[in-house]
């Protein structure tokens, strides 16, 4: 049969590039041990033939599918979306495919979907566990396969590896910055309390307020949307406006900015505003939004690295973190820090 009329094989690649079948296998699986010129020749043949790996055949030989399962809630919010994208990118670079499955409210709290994902033959499962609704899916998946959860806090479940970004640290960075600008009163417009990120940010806020001796209060919770930030701010204008408002995320901060603009309250002169996430467009708000950036790409790599070590039964390199630090991005919605 002519190669053009069937799916090209590794043997076809070997014939086209003038090397052995074993050399093609090394280029695909251990490229660093193959001479650069040979690697280049094999990859050129792969491209010319349109060769792709037959994962089913590989699974029969190795009992591994090179398939990673990923569970999400399908949220369109910036944080979960960026985390999902980062994990997919890291998996592809490591030679794994990702089977993405969405857990909805109709899915029996995730138990049925988690079970179906196990039946797909995935080597391991990553769960973007942003809120309490994802915990049952984590529990189901962990019964028979390695699981790593991406979450803002420990899920207190035996055998579950958890990685995340230090949300409390991000909130503390916000309050430290506001204190250095001379702010003495801050209100935190909190996010939904069934979300781990929202709870951790509020805890960080409360810790930092106490540490710096500021007048602080929490309002809400909001629901991550601009509308909730807008409504919470209108209530603050009626009841007494603080010197700064720290919104639980950038979307709520957009609502805060809009409400202040409607009331002709100057930002940051009359009231400073800070968000969280450094979403696309935060720098183009008027004024540009001070916020907290999360290392999503690094988080995706870390989550995959932990899962691969679980699959291989190997130890992580010494010093490998489970929690990554965020970074405060200062823009024009807060006043300059004082030098004295």
Describe this structure in words.
The chain contains twelve helices and twelve strands. It is α/β, with parallel strands linked by helices and 340 residues long. It folds into three domains: 3-52, 434 Repressor (Amino-terminal Domain), CATH 1.10.260.40; 65-165 and 296-322, Rossmann fold (3-Layer(aba) Sandwich), CATH 3.40.50.2300; 167-294, Rossmann fold (3-Layer(aba) Sandwich). Helix 1 (10-17) crosses helix 3 (36-49) and helix 5 (78-93) packs across helix 12. Residues 55-63 have low confidence and may be disordered.
Structural class: alpha/beta
**CATH class value of the largest domain:** Alpha Beta
- What portion of the residues fall into strands of 2 or more residues? 15-25%
State the CATH superfamily name of the largest domain: Response regulator
Uncertain parts: 55-63
What's the CATH topology name of the largest domain?
A: Rossmann fold
Average of the residue pLDDT scores: 85
Question: Roughly how much helix do the residues carry, as a percent range?
Answer: 40-55%
Distance between the termini: 81 Å
What is the correct CATH architecture of the largest domain? 3-Layer(aba) Sandwich
Task: Give the helix tally.
Answer: 12
